[in-house]
Write a structure and sequence with these properties.
mainly alpha, A middle domain of Talin 1, 2 strands, about 0% strand
């Protein structure tokens, strides 16, 4: 009964976290547009950051509860889930697969994604992340943002008015994210104790899956409207933010525990999945057959986590 109770708390807290994150993103987007910021810049900053907000919030909460190993689980689990589950589902349900016609994706964003995966892999080889390495990751994030902004040529933007409700929802959304993250971490700690499952495994599986559900819904809806390529940009931006921001910011607060099982399996698996994603992308599309392959790999990842 106690296990079911904390599963319920986990589900409820995660729901609050995700809903609050959506409110924050939507309101921040409206305020940004009211200041004349272009939709592209909002996409690579507010929305891209917002998709990683649940992971960042739970990671910071993990630091305060002494479960810092959840941070690396959050990052790796979300990155793996984004590529294998989200792109796998979208490609599998699209008859022609996911077409990628954007030159920027292949020449800029995809190389930056691969670099971020390699950078994290090498930074963690000593089973630790130093403050200097955190600064390196955060600097790489700034470079990514600046590079994205340089591609923006939209100087004539409509300025819809932001109401007081938008500003109020930013505050409410931020408060909801903080509360949801705290209770999510509380539930993770208790579930870890009751089920005798390491907290980083819960982060790699349940938390990663839960925080990726909104992106999955958005990507599936986009695919139904014939805009499945949007899922690729969403995954690339989210993974880069996860690797740089969600790893670096918590490290500025406290030391991070990097479990051996993460170094032995999840970290190399994330790197391999990212490289595979880049190789498939050279076809300028993700074929439907590749989508099924990604889903099989996701099932293998989940089974391997719990079989350990």
């Amino acid at each position: 009964m106690e296990l079911l109770m904390y599963l319920g708390i986990f589900a409820g807290a995660l729901t609050v976290l995700l809903l609050s994150s959506d409110w924050f993103i939507d309101s921040a987007e409206a305020v940004g547009l009211s200041f004349g910021i272009s939709p592209y810049i909002i996409g690579v900053t507010i929305i891209a950051f917002g998709t990683s907000l649940p992971e960042l919030a739970t990671s910071i909460a993990a630091i305060h509860t002494g479960e810092s190993e959840v941070v690396i689980g959050n990052v790796l689990g979300s990155n793996i889930t984004n590529i294998l589950l989200i792109l796998g589902v979208v490609a599998a349900m699209s008859r022609g697969g996911i077409r990628m016609n954007g030159q920027m994706i292949m020449e800029i964003d995809m190389p930056l994604l691969v670099v971020s995966a390699f950078l994290l892999f090498f930074c963690l080889q000593d089973a630790a992340l130093s403050v200097l390495e955190a600064v390196l990751l955060f600097t790489a994030l700034i470079v990514f943002l600046v590079n994205s902004m340089r591609t923006d040529s939209d100087n004539d933007n409509e300025r819809p008015k932001a109401t007081w409700k938008h500003y109020a929802m930013i505050v409410v959304g931020a408060a909801g994210v903080a509360i949801g993250a705290d209770y999510t971490m509380h539930a993770i700690t208790k579930l870890s104790e009751l089920a005798q499952i390491p907290s980083e495994v819960i982060a790699l599986s349940l938390v990663a899956l839960g925080t990726s559900l909104p992106e999955l819904v958005v990507s599936v809806n986009a695919a139904r409207k014939g805009k499945s390529e949007m899922a690729v940009g969403n995954v690339i931006g989210s993974n880069i933010f996860n690797t740089y921001a969600v790893m670096a910011i918590p490290r500025f607060i406290s030391d991070l525990k990097i479990p051996e099982n993460v170094l032995d399996f999840s970290l190399p698996f994330m790197l391999g999945v990212t490289i595979m994603f880049a190789i498939i992308s050279t076809l300028n599309k993700i074929p439907r057959a590749a989508g099924f392959m990604l889903l099989i790999l996701y099932a293998f990842f989940m089974i391997s986590l719990f079989s350990q």
